[in-house]
């Protein structure tokens, strides 16, 4: 069963730029009544509030700070959609001197942050009819890019957590969507050196909209993502989305 955006309140983390900003705008265009723009610095969402007025509500938020996540859930108690878009990236191979420090940093945001959000907001979504939880996981969760090994490892872990959430939250009627973009034209993509092959963040935003409407677990929104998704399709269908039993 799909999720209908029109008339619903949503929260998007990392909403002030790049993919997050595109998601906010796509949700509003699809008829969301309100979007909480969850960002570290609320002033960074001023462009959104200037354009969309009271339909965008800046919310102080940090995936590494449980107290802010809890406070956000108290303020955004009316949401039926949570899009966890925020994430971090470090350039580190397994042999980099700072590999372990990089991985710790990325795990704290990309993995522990997801768990913190899910633990706090799952009851909110349940109270509001189930709704949906969307997690940005990247094609890097499915394959390794050597220069960004620690990032890939963190995204593989967040994807695994997302699978667990899919099964757990199904019981309360919450749709979980796992999004796997390739190179996207964002600040993170620029830092990673993907400018020549990066595609617009709007592709991710409208991929999420389509996945929500269709009730799909997977979203592979851009050219590289679709290529990876096509290769992964058989395994995903027969293992990840199948009803697996022991014995």
Automatic annotation (TrEMBL):
Its EC number is 1.-.-.-. It is an enzyme of class 1 (oxidoreductase). The keyword Glycoprotein does not apply. InterPro entries: NAD(P)-bd_dom_sf (IPR036291), SDR_fam (IPR002347). Gene3D superfamilies: NAD(P)-binding Rossmann-like Domain (3.40.50.720). The keyword Oxidoreductase applies. Keywords: Oxidoreductase. GO terms for molecular function: oxidoreductase activity. Belongs to the short-chain dehydrogenases/reductases (SDR) family. This is Putative oxidoreductase. It comes from Gimesia fumaroli.
């Amino acid at each position: 069963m799909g999720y209908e955006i029109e008339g619903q309140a949503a929260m998007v983390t990392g909403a002030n730029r790049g993919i997050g900003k595109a998601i906010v705008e796509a949700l509003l265009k699809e008829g969301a009544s309100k979007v909480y723009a969850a960002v570290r610095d609320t002033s960074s969402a001023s462009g959104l509030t200037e354009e969309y007025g009271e339909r965008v509500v800046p919310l102080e938020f940090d995936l590494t700070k449980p107290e802010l996540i809890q406070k956000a859930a108290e303020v955004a108690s009316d949401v039926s959609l949570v899009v966890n878009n925020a994430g971090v990236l470090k350039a580190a191979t397994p042999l980099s001197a700072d590999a372990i420090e990089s991985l710790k940093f990325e795990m704290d945001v990309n993995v522990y942050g997801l768990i913190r959000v899910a633990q706090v907001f799952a009851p909110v979504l349940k109270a509001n009819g189930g709704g949906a939880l969307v997690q940005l996981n990247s094609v890097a969760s499915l394959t390794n890019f050597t220069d960004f090994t620690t990032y890939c490892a963190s995204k593989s872990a967040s994807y695994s957590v997302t699978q667990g959430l899919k099964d757990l939250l199904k019981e309360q009627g919450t749709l979980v969507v796992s999004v796997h973009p390739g190179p996207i034209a964002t600040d993170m993509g620029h830092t990673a050196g993907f400018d020549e092959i990066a595609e617009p963040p709007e592709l991710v935003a409208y991929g999420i909209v389509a996945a929500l409407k269709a009730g799909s677990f997977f979203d592979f929104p851009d050219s590289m993502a679709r290529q990876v998704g096509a290769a992964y399709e058989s395994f995903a269908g027969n293992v990840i989305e199948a009803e697996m039993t022991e014995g």
